[in-house]
Amino acid sequence: MLKAIETEYKGYRFRSRLEARWAVFFDACGVKWEYEPEGFILPNGQQYLPDFLLHDVTFNHAGYSEGNDLYVEVKGKMTAEDAEKIKGFAFPFDDEDWDAAEINPLLVVGNIPAGDCARDLEDEVFETGFGPAPYGVSLFNFETVDGDYFGAMPGVGKDGKFQLFGADSNYTYDMNKGATERAYRLARQARFEYGETPRMRRYRNA
Fold first, then answer.
1. Best CA proximity match to 121, nearest among 66, 175, 198, 55
2. Fewest CB within 10 angstroms: 75, 137, 153, 156, which?
3. Domain encompassing residue 84
């Protein structure tokens, strides 16, 4: 089996270039992040180490809330073991009597979405979010964030803060389209060959 190339960025050694590109995206969005800050023992005894922990995230959909911590798992390819750990972390309960307060907010993402404009990016993200769920785990979906099966798009709000937008124009209306397009573009274009480190500038409101 081929192994992903480890990649250095901002003093971290990422397990894959895809993870490093998501770090570039988070930087471009101006959100505070940590890489693999802590591991967990799941109820079934498995060990799980989420890729990222983001701070001060706004969840902008039916359950609108600000100032959230959000774990992010990056999956270029999902395996059955990956999915089992993700579900065990996001839903650490044994019965059906649960609510959103019992969920560990975890956004699962895949490849950096393509597209030159916000509309194209939204279409790709939400098609993925409502598309096939490998081994029962949906990428770009609120299900593992707050239990609501609904598309979830990371981006920058009009307030200049990082948000997770729901799959509806009522929510994406609050998106800063230009800043979000720029963040995805920088993440896709980031190059790490020969020790090159992308130079990032945090987005600021005009």
1. 175
2. 75
3. 7-193
- The number of folded domains in the chain is 1
% of the chain surpassing 90 pLDDT: 74
Residue 199 lies in a domain: no
pTM of the model: 0.89
Rounded to an integer, what distance in angstroms lies between the CA atom of residue 46 and that of residue 168? 36
| Distance, CA of 187 to CA of 112 (rounded, Å) | 7
Residue 195 confidence class, pLDDT cut points 50, 70, 90: very low
Q: φ, ψ for residue 8 (rounded to 5)? A: -95, 140
CA distance 25 to 44: 33
* Helix boundaries (H) for 61-100: 80-90
Cα separation of 173 and 122, whole Å? 12
Residue 205 lies in a domain: no
Min mean pLDDT across 59-63, 95-99, 191-195 is at: 95-99
